[in-house]
Amino acid sequence: xxxxxxxxxxxxxxxxxxxxxxxxxxxxxxxxxxxxxxxxxxxxxxxxxxxxxxxxxxxxxxxxxxxxxxxxxxxxxxxxxxxxxxxxxxxxxxxxxxxxxxxxxxxxxxxxxxxxxxxxxxxxxxxxxxxxxxxxxxxxxxxxxxxxxxxxxxxxxxxxxxxxxxxxxxxxxxxxxxxxxxxxxxxxxxxxxxxxxxxxxxxxxxxxxxxxxxxxxxxxxxxxxxxxxxxxxxxxxxxxxxxxxxxxxxxxxxxxxxxxxxxxxxxxxxxxxxxxxxxxxxxxxxxxxxxxxxxxxxxxxxxxxxxxxxxxxxxxxxxxxxxxxxxxxxxxxxxxxxxxxxxxxxxxxxxxxxxxxxxxxxxxxxxxxxxxxxxxxxxxxxxxxxxxxxxxxxxxxxxxxxxxxxxxxxxxxxxxxxxxxxxxxxxxxxxxxxxxxxxxxxxxxx
Length: 446
Description:
Shape: globular
CATH topology of the domain at 266-446: Neuraminidase
Number of strands: 36
Mean pLDDT: 75
Structural class: mainly beta
Low-confidence stretches: 30-47, 402-413, 427-446
CATH class of the domain at 266-446: Mainly Beta
């Protein structure tokens, strides 16, 4: 016969049952949250929801406004302290009595512009370029000129030997940490004036002031090739192969300076890369953004592809949540790709310039639209990443009809803007709270 249960034992039993029920309720809540949080996150994390926490600011107007170069007539380089704008040739707007400077520099810390001294040029000689930043100097390799921002001076160095680099159709140089690499693309025969195959290129060592010629690549004649430095390889992909840029090359090649050899790169998964592309190196992949053409009007869409040199494979990115456009600015912002601006052909005579953009996160393989910028949109803006902000400026915005009025087909009057991403991974200030006090609320400045 079991022993009778006393009041004390019955109390302990009731407390134990209450505790068990409480634990069961907690378990149910935790399990429910485990399902609800991802579900809510998935419902709220829509690709068409703008990133509200990120912010823009307008840049102060440069001292040489009206003559900012576009990417086909100049370049923008970030030195770690200043943004340097350099025109590839001396441009004077029609009817203007003044000659604009060849270069400008902008310091985000002080929000001030300064005019660069003129480079050492002969009469009617172009600046040459495009430039590349070595960590100390801005080098214009084919022209044999270098600019030192710390000393604010130009110097000459030994130019490339005759015939080593093309006079037309040259690609952008890259800095390897020891050499400037320039792929040759194409050249022109002096006698016949016909474009001939280049396909070689050269390397310049600033420490020794010497050039060496690269071995011939497996690529044929082309202009406007996509070029990137991976930290180990020079990538040369696609480009225009004829018919005034309408025929696009499908192939590419990678140059290894250590082995002094080229390796072919397969064609992208989507086939031909259309003209007027933009690209950015992420640290592990080359992302290429381009438009799906429609010769009768606006682009039919945009396509983005990523190439991984380690696997030698391409993949197609999901579509971006913005209207199709051409000539957008693209920059890698530490942990995401930013696409902004561009141009839309509304008809064969009417144009539009979107002032919005999108950000692509490779980790989630998702896009998010950016908030509209506080400056007008433009085609092919110059773009740099400073470590905590993306700066877009220059470009082209001649109005809703394509004309040569005031020469604005190659220069625009619009000031630039800086975009601050929120929640940067791997360094960088990603919110307005981390910005200097002088920079806050800059979107309200003229």
